[in-house]
Amino acid sequence: MKKLFLGLTFLILLIIGGVYGLLFTAPGNSYVASIIEQKVNEGQQDVNMKVNDFKLTMNDILFNATLDGNSTINVEGDLNIFAKSVDLKYDLNIKDLAKLENITKQKLNGAFSTNGTVKGNQELAIVKGISKVASGNTTYDVKLVDFKPSNILYSMKDVKIDELLHLLNQPKYATGILAVDANIKNADIASLDGLVTTKITNGILNAKVLNKELKQNPKTPISFTANTTTNLVPNMANTKVDFDSTIANLDVQKANVNLKTSVINSDYKLFVKDLAKLEAIINQKFNGSFTTTGTATVNKGVVKVNGAADIFASDTKYDVKIENSKPEYVNVMVNNAKIQDVLKLVNQPNFANGLMNIDAKIKSADIKNLDGKVITTILESKVNNKVVNEQFQQKLKKPIVFKGDIVTDLVKTQAISKIDLNTTVTNLDMAKAVFDIEKGEFVSDYTINFTDLGKLYDFTQQKMRGAAKFTGNIKQNPTTLSVDGKSSLFGGNITFNLLNDNFKAKIDGVEVKNLTHMLYYPEIFTSKSNIDVDYNLATKIGKVGGNLLNGQFVKNQYSDIINTFAQFDLTKEVYEKVEIKSDMKQDIINTVVDMTSKHTTIKVPSSILNTKKNSVNALVQAKILKYAFDTKISGSLSNPKVKVDTKAFLNSKYGKKVKEKTDKLKNKLKDKLGEDLKLDGLKLDKLFNEAPKDPKDTATASAKPTNAEIAAAFKKMFGE
Predict the structure, then answer these.
(1) Core-most of 291, 478, 502, 578, by most CB within 10 Å?
(2) Tell me: the pLDDT tens digits for 145-157?
């Protein structure tokens, strides 16, 4: 037993002697220094540590090393290993933190320096120092009990935010000055006690960094300030936030962080002052302001937000859940949102005033796996005629009221809507309007029903009557817009297709008499139409060509005059094929017409229609049997002036005979017509004037002969 005890004692002394020789002698210090160099430099390419001096004894320590020859680490002072006490000074000066990524396990940039003292023992030690971070000055005073932080005093002043972001390897999102003050009386989580405040002044967002597409920063920068106060209590950190910027103000009265469970509960109030200033960051112009308040909870990566807002001057409530950084569900209820405020938000003129409701229940907000329903109800609203007239050069006068319902189902990447929009002008229905969010493509059917075409007058400036209904399809993607449609109208069919700016239409079998009746034009011709239209909406250039089939003049004042004038019934002539060609350029339509029957030939070598001025200037060359004469039509399209040039007729044998009878009738007609009758320039527009509706209007009555009187006069001139 004695030998065993002596052997163990000798072994222990040998180990202690070996450790002492390894650690506390010059050769041992040199060996330890080489190990430190080897471990630090292992796997390093950008940094090389050189231990210049290392001394470790039972009473003191000295460590001096360089990194790449320009960064230094110095530690020296008293060390009592057995008493576990130290009195040290340290000085750390790193010129390039990026070279220490293998050691720090995080990419850092820039320089860092700190120096201070460590005094005390295991029971109590004090660490005091200063450091230079991001051009700011930092002081710290930490009390260690059993080598664990107890009391902490920390102060950071005049730190440049852009330099701090660069140090942390983050883009320079902002500039400004940061200050931090911490007074932690007890750092133990279970008995935490302290106060931490932060302050940001002169903050300015770097719009070019936030939006790389910007060529330069906005003229009016987005500035901000921020203040936070955090009270530390056992297991909890309670924070108050006041963030103010030229865009918005965020007020958080109580954000509670459970330091043991990492659960966060917070209230918030966000006041968006001016959405227009976001344009520099998001490349989208928005306007207006709104306030939203609510609560937020973060638990194990799951974020839940409940709140209310007055956006669009509405009563809005929302409920959102985000898991794994993706929205899981979104519920939004918008009541009485003002349409004018919605238009203002998306930077549109105030086209309409009214109210709308939105009820959105989105079970899955994953953009690739949508699931939910959105119901939009437009309450009775009214078009702002003044604004529409200014923006689209319209002449709206009568009020236009509208309302509608939109029911949208969200399925995978698509929003599938049923749209029912009713207005005082027309009704629009879309049974299945599909917008593919991933493709950016919109496809829909549509039915547009004009129950009273007369209500379109303010839009078209053309009197119309009757009804019309169009059905078709719409397809739009980022590069193409296609709209097709069809309608059964006046015994025929109208089909059309719009591809981007190119519009093509075919009018097949439409009855011209009914069409002119719809347009309030004189009903002088009946036929079936076969017309093609090719028009470019951008250049406003196009062509119209086709035929009117099996046409006949209908009985009217003009046919009566021709009958009396030429002793020929024009209404019995059949025009198997009337050829029409029109060239459209901007507001001008130039039309040529060629029509031939068994006994007549009628040509329009030039007809100029000005849609902007609503005027017409046309020449009609007619040959009926052996008689030829020209007709000039000019003036307002709705009430044109018609003048028949009868010089060619009067030079004929039959015309000379008529002229002889004219002198005899002249005096008789003068009393009734109120002027001399001039057959060589007969103005037939007077013949088309209606008799006065009021029999008491004797002045008008004397100036406008009746149809019977005119017909009787011509019969006397030309003979029975």
Answers:
(1) 578
(2) 887 888 999 999 9
